[in-house]
């Protein structure tokens, strides 16, 4: 792994990647300690705890791939089959919420796909997933929040289990539909080739896995032409294809490679 690390005072990442308009003052040479290092060859590769069909895991696989970060996968099952599943005491020590993904990277363990994407953005900015323009960045974050806070958690497996078999499909469809109505409106104003203008961003990384969830729960996508067009465009990109759930080593044979 070769990592370019831009560090501010006390080793914090340069604010340039957080708040571009402040970057000139905060990142002036008098206060900025820029450390560039190639990680030693024997430094372990990042380890991603991932489940093949988890949309949150897919987000991180796409982000790592887009940013050209080689990584290994520890398949971690959500179905309590096998030894390595999220509900073991061993995994609780990795991720106290007992969800995937988690990422071991640079000597740290990070949980939550969005936090992980921001960490990657701040430590590996060469392929950016946030636009420079502050309004576009805000729009990207709005879409990320819409998907990751207002849709996915409501149709997460553990929530559906709690709702019970009889109601779970209607429940998932209801919350995905409500979110997609809003998302379609937002994208009508923000999208170009991708979710926000023509630059690939975290919004795109989150969109595609959520559309797969919508298809899984048989949501009618006809009312959402922007969502469908963007999903189609993004799915043709190698980083999205190679990380697809059906390409994962823990994908059951009946879905694998399809
Ligand atoms: N906010 C978390 C959500 C993680 C999450 O809900 N992961 C799902 C799979 S996509 C999971 O592990 N569900 C199992 C459970 O909730 O018990 C993230 O973005 O990483």
From TrEMBL:
Could you tell me which SUPFAM superfamilies the record lists for this protein? GST C-terminal domain-like, Thioredoxin-like
Q: What does the record give as cofactor? A: glutathione
| CDD domains according to UniProt | GST_C_Zeta (cd03191), GST_N_Zeta (cd03042)
Which Gene Ontology CC terms are recorded?
mitochondrion
- Specify whether Isomerase is a keyword of the entry: yes
Recorded hits in PROSITE patterns, A to Z, give:
GST_CTER, GST_NTER
State if ATP-binding is listed as a keyword: no
**Keywords, ordered alphabetically:** Isomerase, Phenylalanine catabolism, Tyrosine catabolism
Q: Which pathway is this protein assigned to? A: Amino-acid degradation; L-phenylalanine degradation; acetoacetate and fumarate from L-phenylalanine: step 5/6
Domain GST C-terminal: residue ranges = 133-253
Provide one Gene Ontology biological process annotation.
L-phenylalanine catabolic process
A Pfam family matched by this chain, by name?
GST_C_3
One GO molecular function term of this record is: maleylacetoacetate isomerase activity
The reaction(s) annotated as catalysed by this protein in its Swiss-Prot or TrEMBL entry are:
4-maleylacetoacetate = 4-fumarylacetoacetate
Question: According to the lineage, what is the superkingdom?
Answer: Eukaryota
Q: Which residues form the GST N-terminal domain?
A: 44-128
Protein's name according to its UniProt entry: maleylacetoacetate isomerase
Q: Which organism is it from?
A: Drosophila guanche (Fruit fly)
């Amino acid at each position: 792994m070769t990592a370019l690390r831009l560090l501010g005072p006390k080793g914090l990442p340069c604010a340039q990647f957080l708040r571009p308009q402040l970057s000139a003052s905060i990142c002036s040479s008098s206060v900025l300690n820029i450390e560039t290092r190639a990680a030693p060859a024997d430094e372990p590769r990042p380890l991603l705890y991932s489940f093949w069909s988890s949309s949150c895991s897919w987000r991180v696989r796409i982000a790592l791939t887009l940013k050209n970060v080689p990584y290994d996968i520890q398949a971690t099952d959500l179905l309590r089959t096998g030894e390595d599943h999220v509900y073991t005491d061993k995994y609780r020590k990795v991720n106290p919420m007992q969800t995937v993904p988690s990422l071991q990277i640079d000597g740290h363990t990070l949980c939550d796909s969005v936090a992980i994407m921001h960490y990657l953005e701040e430590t590996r900015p060469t392929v950016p997933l946030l636009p420079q323009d502050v309004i576009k960045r805000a729009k990207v974050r709005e879409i990320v929040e819409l998907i990751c806070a207002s849709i996915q958690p409501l149709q997460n497996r553990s929530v559906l289990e709690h709702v019970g078999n009889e109601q779970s499909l209607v429940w998932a469809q209801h919350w995905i539909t409500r979110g997609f109505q809003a998302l379609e409106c937002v994208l009508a104003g923000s999208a170009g080739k991708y979710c926000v203008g023509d630059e690939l961003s975290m919004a795109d990384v989150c969109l595609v896995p959520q559309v797969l969830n919508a298809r899984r729960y048989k949501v009618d996508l006809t009312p959402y032409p922007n969502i469908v067009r963007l999903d189609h465009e993004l799915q043709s990109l190698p980083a999205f294809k190679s990380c697809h759930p059906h390409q994962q080593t823990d994908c059951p044979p009946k879905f694998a490679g399809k």
